[in-house]
Amino acid sequence: MSLTKTERTIIVSMWAKISTQADTIGTETLERLFLSHPQTKTYFPHFDLHPGSAQLRAHGSKVVAAVGDAVKSIDNIGGALSKLSELHAYILRVDPVNFKLLSHCLLVNLAARFPADFTAEAHAAWDKFLSVVSSVLTEKYR
Amino acid sequence: MGHFTEEDKATITSLWGKLNVEDAGGETLGRLLVVYPWTQRFFDSFGNLSSASAIMGNPKVKAHGKKVLTSLGDAVKNLDDLKGTFAQLSELHCDKLHVDPENFRLLGNVLVTVLAIHFGKEFTPEVQASWQKMVAGVASALSSRYH
């Protein structure tokens, strides 16, 4: 699965807007994930998961920054996220099903914040882009 | 299947009350067909599905979307017995329509996204969580009679 030129343009141009709210988007995405899919909390027994916790904010920023890296290197997501891919495969070992859950929560967050931009076409582009990112992050699992 | 708290029920019911079911139905089914094009396999008779704009403007998509979402209204009124409410529809989707239940999960998530677009800030993480329970419950009920 590979992104078309149109899809890349949509992602990159929306990212310019998104990046101005990057940190809050990251934190809120994780909040959505933990509330809607409580089983995902099992990966964070060492975290204070109360809304507004410093750890949640820091981790949310990290996650969105990584998505931003993928956007900035949208022609070579595999290269840009190679280290992160190894981290997930050898250290974190998050079950692949969870990437879909996180992607969905990020998507819902973007849809709520940028409704006018989130056309059916943009929705498709984002879903596909996050699917590519998820594939990259799980490609070294076995 | 998940258990709906009184708060879940209030959240779900109140949001549903503010929704234009006809518009949301067309939007939801249309987006399913655009975002997950393989779902078009069930709709060969719907005519022009050749582009995002063709799909979103297609009158058959809108009509069918309205049908689907109207049926979800029954779920909202019967959150404590989704299995019973959707028993017949479950048999229909298995025996006549031959729909893989994975499609119920896809549609559910598209609906959640449409709600987010429509309600914006009001679609808080807590509200989303109630609705995820709702769409998961419906998907489960619709697949409960599969054999």
Blueprint (SSEs and pairs):
The complex is a heterodimer of chains A (about 140) and B (about 150).
Chain A: H1 5-18, H2 22-36, H3 54-72, H4 77-80, H5 82-92, H6 97-113, H7 120-138
Chain B: H1 6-17, H2 21-35, H3 52-57, H4 59-77, H5 82-85, H6 87-96, H7 102-119, H8 125-143
Helix pairs in contact in B: 1-8, 2-4, 2-7, 7-8
Q: Can you put this structure into words, describing what you see?
A:
The complex is a heterodimer of chains A (about 140) and B (about 150). Chain A is mainly α and about 140 residues long. Chain A has 7 helices and no strands. Chain B has about 150 residues and is mainly alpha-helical. Chain B has 8 helices and no strands. In chain B, α1 crosses α8, α2 (about 20-35) crosses α4 (about 60-75) and α7 (about 100-120) packs antiparallel against α8 (about 125-145). At the A-B interface, α2, α6 and α7 of A face α2, α3, α7 and α8 of B.
What would the keywords be for this entry?
heterodimer; A: about 140 residues; mainly alpha; 7 helices; globular; B: about 150 residues; Globin-like; 8 helices; Hemoglobin_b (chain B); S-nitrosylation (chain B); haptoglobin binding (chain B)
Sum this structure up briefly.
Chain A has helices at about 5-20, 20-35, 55-70, 75-80, 80-90, 95-115, 120-140. By secondary structure, chain A is an all-alpha fold. Chain B has helices at about 5-15, 20-35, 50-55, 60-75, 80-85, 85-95, 100-120, 125-145.
The rounded Rg of chain A comes to 14 Å
Q: Give the strand content of chain A.
A: under 5%
- CATH first level of chain B: which class? Mainly Alpha
Radius of gyration of chain B: 15 Å
- What is the number of helical segments of chain A per DSSP (H or I, 4+ residues)? 7
Largest sheet of chain A: none
**N-to-C span of chain A:** 19 Å
- The CATH superfamily of chain B is Globins
- Largest interface, C-beta within 8 A: A-B, 22 and 23 residues
**What oligomeric arrangement do these chains adopt?**
heterodimer
Give the averaged pLDDT of chain B, no decimals.
Answer: 96
Task: Supply the number of helical segments of chain B.
Answer: 8
Largest beta-sheet characterization of chain B: none
Low-pLDDT stretches of chain B: none
**Poorly predicted ranges of chain A (pLDDT <50, ≥5 residues)?**
none
- CA-based shape of chain B: globular
Write down how many β-strands of chain A occur, each being a DSSP E stretch of 2 or more residues.
0
SSE string of chain B:
HHHHHHHH
Describe the global form of chain A: globular
Sheet-strand content of chain B, in percent, reads under 5%
Pfam families (chain A): Globin
Organism (chain A): Pongo abelii
Domain Globin (chain A): 2-142
Keywords (chain A): Heme, Iron, Metal-binding, Oxygen transport, Transport
